[in-house]
């Protein structure tokens, strides 16, 4: 029975992270920490690293902290929570950084309906270069209007 609970917590955490991605993007990245996210919209730098990448480090620290709580403080839910955050971060990295922004030359030829919709939605987000008026959404639940044939 424990394994079912762990799986449910893992899946719930993974799905909750989609909400957190939307919330963080809309109210933090396009809010009071715009100075860190701005270089993701304005490519005025020659570096592979962006200040925007610091948001990844924040979620990695949260995930690692949950692993440590599970291991050393006997917090049993720390493992499925930490794994859910880690899995979402890994999926986000593949979809956003590798597939959409091509930070690594991999997954360039994916052209199914989902891939096209995700690319189209992200392109619409990036057409707004400023802090305001930018449509924000997560990685998995892109608005249906972008999935045209």
From TrEMBL:
Any single Pfam family the record assigns to this protein: FA_hydroxylase
MF (Gene Ontology): beta-carotene 3-hydroxylase activity; iron ion binding
GO biological process: carotene metabolic process; xanthophyll biosynthetic process
Fatty acid hydroxylase domain boundaries: 11-141
Keywords: Carotenoid biosynthesis, Membrane, Oxidoreductase, Transmembrane, Transmembrane helix
The organism's place on the tree of life at top rank: Bacteria
Membrane-spanning intervals of the chain: 6-24, 54-73, 79-100
Stated family: Belongs to the sterol desaturase family.
Name of the featured protein: Beta-carotene hydroxylase
Originating species: Bizionia myxarmorum
